[in-house]
Amino acid sequence: MKTVDMFNDRTVFSFEVFPPKKTMGIETIYKSLEEMKQLKPDFISVTFGAGGSENCTATLDIAERIKKICNVEPVVHLPCLNLTKSEAINILQNFRNAGIENILALRGDKVEGKDPCEDFEHASDLISFIKDFNESTGSDFNILAASYPELHPESENVYSDIDSLKIKEASGANHFVSQLFLDNDVFYRFYERVRLAGIKSPMEAGIMPVTNKKQIERMIKLCGATLPVKFQRILNRYENSQEALMDAGIAYAIDQIADLVTQGVQGIHLYTMNNSKTASRINEAIRSLFKEVSFHNQKSPVLAL
């Protein structure tokens, strides 16, 4: 099922997982997936390393398991900066053969000590390429794209960032997933700019429960998100207690999601960090808080601007 078809007057709820760095960890992610499927997410996305086509195998293996064993729709990430067009064609053929329908098209990160390939400079280049692949091969990939509520780290300003989203949509993307943010007001301002610019595709809000101070500081450095004062106080107070920080981080994420759902956000994309227990705690809290809002089949309000 295409993810864009899931937005039928209801709130979409999805997860992100990543392949373990070591082969021995693959059973761990399989166990987490078994637990996550009980939470009935609309889809689960699987990340793809930035190094090139050699990262495809683990991503595809996990995506196939999500689809066939967990009976949940998978979305595969595909970063293009270090791909050639011929590698991209091979990967798309493998995705098609595996029954994958949804691709999150990304530019990807630069790899230290490795020059990027020159075939794809921007995510929009890959989006156009997948669209052309669909037309030339009779494939039917649904294309998702990333958005940045606090600007892409390399964007010149708000306007160029919104222009980039417009190009992605015009190139063939029809579903946006946002990078993490810790201040909902940031997302609301961003959403308003997106809609005023005429971008119509559904927009999911990306939420990362913070359970480790170094982890969130590293992620913030990569994506350009800011730390609200309230959240900084949480980190400072609980940084020496892993259990307390985890509880506080989960509570903060629940508050974020509760506010977003109340305001009618179209979807929540939870960056699980492969932690099914964290996902389960958040899932349980949100569903009990919003019994009137079902992530499956019931209507949710429309975000008012």
Task: Summarize, please.
By secondary structure, the chain is an alpha/beta fold. The protein has helices at residues 26-37, 56-68, 85-97, 123-137, 158-171, 184-196, 213-223, 229-238, 242-262, 276-289; strands spanning 12-17, 43-46, 73-79, 102-106, 142-147, 176-180, 203-207, 267-271.
Helix-strand pattern: EHEHEHEHEHEHEHHHEH
Secondary structural class: alpha/beta
CATH architecture assignment: Alpha-Beta Barrel
Q: What is the topology, as strand order, of the major beta sheet? A: 1-2-3-4-5-6-7-8
What average pLDDT do the residues reach? Answer: 89
Give the tally of β-strands: 8
Provide the CATH top-level class: Alpha Beta
Number of helices: 10
The number of domains = 1
Overall geometry: globular
Structure overview:
By secondary structure, the chain is α/β, with parallel strands linked by helices. It has one domain: Alpha-Beta Barrel (TIM Barrel), CATH 3.20.20.220. Helices cover 45% and strands 14% of the residues. It has helices at residues 26-37, 56-68, 85-97, 123-137, 158-171, 184-196, 213-223, 229-238, 242-262, 276-289, and strands spanning 12-17, 43-46, 73-79, 102-106, 142-147, 176-180, 203-207, 267-271. It has an eight-stranded parallel barrel with strand order 1-2-3-4-5-6-7-8, surrounded by four helices. Helix 1 packs parallel to helix 10 (276-289) and helix 8 packs antiparallel against helix 9. The radius of gyration is 18 Å and the shape is globular.
